[in-house]
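Bit of a strange request maybe. I'm writing a small parser for structure token strings and I need a real example to test against, not something I typed by hand. Could someone generate the tokens for this chain?
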Amino acid sequence: MRTHALRRTFVALLAASAVTALVPAMATPAAAAGPGECRNSTGGVIAEIGPGQRLESGARLADKVSRTELVMQPDGNLVLYALGTPGGYDLPLWNSGTYGNPGAYALMQEDGNFV
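Reply from user aminoacidic:
Good idea to test on real output. This should exercise your parser:
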């Protein structure tokens, strides 16, 4: 049952990233992330992930409603985290198993597949 709920959260996060409007790059790092926002490694908002766009190393998509965050780590692993309390630890829920590939990225294809 838990796996089904996690999969549903993951799919919802990816779907939200595909339809959210662009967010100004000048938002402060302290601002809360909205559904589909892509943040750089310093927490600054970059943009959404739309068709043909990539989630580069250090970028993250956060959903404050489900309190999850999808992160493309510098080691090449794409990880979905359940966000902890402020100052607390985040719990990894899923990962792509692609660690050891620095410079890897995730791509939202034109057909809507996230690879």
